[in-house]
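Ops channel
N.P.: pipeline sanity check, posting one input/output pair.
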């Protein structure tokens, strides 16, 4: 039923709780799990977009972002509590909700398990939460963990 789970993580407590829930589901169904960390850059500094005038972040910033991603994924993997051979992980640049939906569709995932509102409540009010956007646009069911 749930052979492939996608678990987007952002380092928040709710994302870690979602990873733990995904681990329980994966144990019950024998699922493979992909942890996904999406680093969001404002459009003005997305060097990968190919648009003229874009500025790439410097090496120190890139190194700090890579270290932050490794730590988020390490904590999420620990929360999953699954053997290494059942878990993959990926770090991507982009808009989080759009990227999660694209990865879910391209990878043929059966379920997305994610935390609710990783952003601050005020910021989420103005931007809209990633979990809300994913739940409305994902190609598969979405379990939002509070």
């Amino acid at each position: 039923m749930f052979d492939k789970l996608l678990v987007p993580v952002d380092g928040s407590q709710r994302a870690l709780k979602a990873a733990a829930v995904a681990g329980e589901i994966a144990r019950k169904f024998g699922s493979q799990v992909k942890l996904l960390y999406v680093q969001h850059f404002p459009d003005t500094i997305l060097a990968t977009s190919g648009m003229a005038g874009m500025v790439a972040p410097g090496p120190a910033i890139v190194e700090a972002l890579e270290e932050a991603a490794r730590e988020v994924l390490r904590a999420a993997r620990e929360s999953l509590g699954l053997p290494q051979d059942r878990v993959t992980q990926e770090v991507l640049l982009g808009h989080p909700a759009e990227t999660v939906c694209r990865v879910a569709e391209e990878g043929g995932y059966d379920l997305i398990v994610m935390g609710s509102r990783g952003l601050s409540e005020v910021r989420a009010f103005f931007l809209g939460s990633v979990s809300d956007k994913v739940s409305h646009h994902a190609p598969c069911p979405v379990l939002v963990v509070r």
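N.P.: looks fine end to end. The domain at 4-145 is CATH 3.40.50.620 (Rossmann fold).
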